[in-house]
């Protein structure tokens, strides 16, 4: 198989997985019964604007209004629903403004009204209203430290819930006495609704001390106001009697669609899991070993085949200022180093939202000649990997995967093709 053919197959597998999680197809069949009164739409996340547009189009006869916030560059027109853009992965002033407008939209509701909460990954940063006693700079400092610490997304969102005036189910309480239905596009390993966007409509049963332990575990400097807040006793969990949530798109469903696409290309798919975590470069070494076993011995399945996986790996930066890149390009550069040009193995990895880390690429691709072409261009792959500069390496080879914002988010999608 030539590089061009393998690249086309892997890109198609990736694209079909992403398309299966788009708001247009998944919103209408998951809408609840129409309300007798108003429908107030709130939401936060990279997919929230596209989700809002789908709601507005599906219910032209319903009194629909509301506010949702999405990442800069991810907005689309949503008719009667206001769209706000804010920063990700570190909140900015618009994140705080959006949270206040969402809270305002929930005032004066009645039992006849319906609140539709459109929740997707990225909402933790995009909707940021500090808990009483904290400031936005307090939250920004903690977030920046967590992003470079190696903490996983569950740990990060645990902290965020306890530093927020709207997360951890607090928005659901504010929506009372209206009925609230949360439509959730999950981007977290395990699909726990409390972890998606830090669960603004899902009751939080963790303790403030749990969040404090996360910060201490990763040796993160804690502002005095944050420490004081997390040393307070936990408040009673307020229950919402008329609330429900629906997972409408998940990493597992996206990988199932990727498997269908692989079969259509004559490949045997093997899904390794939708919740794989760990250091990006270490996960890559493990997967390189599996790929080599398949290539040489036909175990656990014989080729032509494709290894599929999802989840959210981490990148721990402990050697100063990092270069450019995200967890997917770091995974791929480590994979290339581990494979050492093994013939008949190709790979793609990308964030399903189209943005790997903070760069403009979803991810990249690895070919049997990735390291050879790099050396011919004067690039030392190990040095780039150690400097967390994987984006620059793949950019120099023109092997980045550029999709633009996909307006959905079911976490990372990785596919390794073994001929």
UniProtKB/TrEMBL annotation:
<dbReference type="GO" id="GO:0008887">
    <property type="term" value="F:glycerate kinase activity"/>
</dbReference>
<dbReference type="InterPro" id="IPR025286">
    <property type="entry name" value="MOFRL_assoc_dom"/>
</dbReference>
<dbReference type="InterPro" id="IPR038614">
    <property type="entry name" value="GK_N_sf"/>
</dbReference>
<dbReference type="GO" id="GO:0005737">
    <property type="term" value="C:cytoplasm"/>
</dbReference>
<keyword id="KW-0670">Pyruvate</keyword>
<dbReference type="InterPro" id="IPR037035">
    <property type="entry name" value="GK-like_C_sf"/>
</dbReference>
<dbReference type="Pfam" id="PF05161">
    <property type="entry name" value="MOFRL"/>
</dbReference>
<protein>
    <submittedName>
        <fullName>Hydroxypyruvate reductase</fullName>
    </submittedName>
</protein>
<dbReference type="InterPro" id="IPR007835">
    <property type="entry name" value="MOFRL"/>
</dbReference>
<feature type="domain" description="MOFRL-associated">
    <location>
        <begin position="10"/>
        <end position="230"/>
    </location>
</feature>
<feature type="domain" description="MOFRL">
    <location>
        <begin position="306"/>
        <end position="412"/>
    </location>
</feature>
<dbReference type="Pfam" id="PF13660">
    <property type="entry name" value="DUF4147"/>
</dbReference>
<dbReference type="InterPro" id="IPR039760">
    <property type="entry name" value="MOFRL_protein"/>
</dbReference>
